[in-house]
Amino acid sequence: MGLGHSVTALTVLLSIVYCQSPVTSSKRGLVYVPNEKYPQDDANWDSSTSDLTWYYNYASKPSPAFANFPKLQFVPMLWGTGNSSTFLSDVQSQIKAGANITYVLGFNEPDGDSSTGGSAIPAETAAQIWMQQIEPLAKQGVKLGAPACTDFIPVHWYGNFQGLASHIGEYVGTFNKSIWVTEFADANVTRYSYFGAFRSDVSNVGANSAMLTQDGKLTDIGSWYLGGGETGNVPTGNVPKGAAGRKKTFLGSGLLVGLATMWCVL
Asked: Lower CB count within 10 Å: N or C terminus of the chain?
């Protein structure tokens, strides 16, 4: 993995693993798909231990299930042509009524067809809808998600974790925008264990990857992995022979980014 990807993956890792600290992470959201058969499941998203702060439902209006969940901020989406004619008025009505609408999402996988969940919108049509239904919201201080000319870019990823790090790195390098991972899954992972249960001065993968400092105290990574917060304990130790660059870039590995992701979502 190159230095560019390492830096990007480091940023991804730190933003992901920080959600394990006692402070609520504003980054963690919910892709809400209602289950009419088991509506009681919705109560899970507002539990005392939930770290969710926002949600979207592929629509322009909030879900009734969350009417009494004020801590979950709704993010409207203009999914495709189906809700394109009323999107602007729907969002403006919510803002006028006092809703805290600060972000909107535009077009769900416009280059994919309905068989894979895409909205299949021709580029010319998408541009026209964008200018009519989404762009005016920028004047009201709403941040717009996708395409590249906007405030942030939503991405989807269904694959391995190394691929996720590379995918995000490519988007950051190309567009230099903030990234939202609005859909993510890896069906192959059922259990995981982090390789770092040793002191930093005997680590053969770089001192900074160890869960313990040279004095046997938990590092930030070790504490996060065990469900705790930051410790401020800085690991030091010998860099393995032939791996002089790892001390600075080991956090860029796709595996570690993946494990950090799982600490938050599993």
From this structure: C
User: What pLDDT sits at residue 226?
Assistant: 60
CA atoms within 13 A on the CB side of 25: 18
d(CA 211, CA 265): 20
Q: Is the dihedral of CA 234, 240, 244, 248 positive or negative?
A: negative
Q: Residue 167 has which token pair?
A: 């995918």
Question: Whole-prediction pTM value?
Answer: 0.57
**Residue 1's Cα: distance from chain center in Å?**
21
What is the crossing angle of helices 3-17 and 161-175, to 10°? 110
Secondary structure (H, E, C), the chain:
CCHHHHHHHHHHHHHHHHHHCCCCCCCCEEECCCCCCCHHHHHHHHCCCCCCCEEECCCCCCCHHHCCCCCCEECCEECCHHHCCCHHHHHHHHHHCCCCCCEEEECCCCCCCHHHCCCCCCHHHHHHHHHHHHHHHHHHCCEEECCCCCCEEEEEEECCHHHHHHHHHHHHHHHCCEEEEEEEECCCCCCCCCCCCCEHHHCCCCHHHCCECCCCCECHHHHHHCCCCCCCCCCCCCCCCCCCCHHHHHHHCHHHHHHHHHHHHC
| CA nearest to 34, candidates 77, 2, 66 | 66
Residue 35 vs residues 43, 56, 61, 142, 187: alpha-carbon distances, Å: 12, 15, 17, 30, 21
Cα 177 vs. chain centroid, distance in angstroms? 14
Residue 31: per-residue pLDDT: 78
Low-confidence ranges of the chain (pLDDT < 50): 1-15, 17-24, 148, 190-193, 239-266
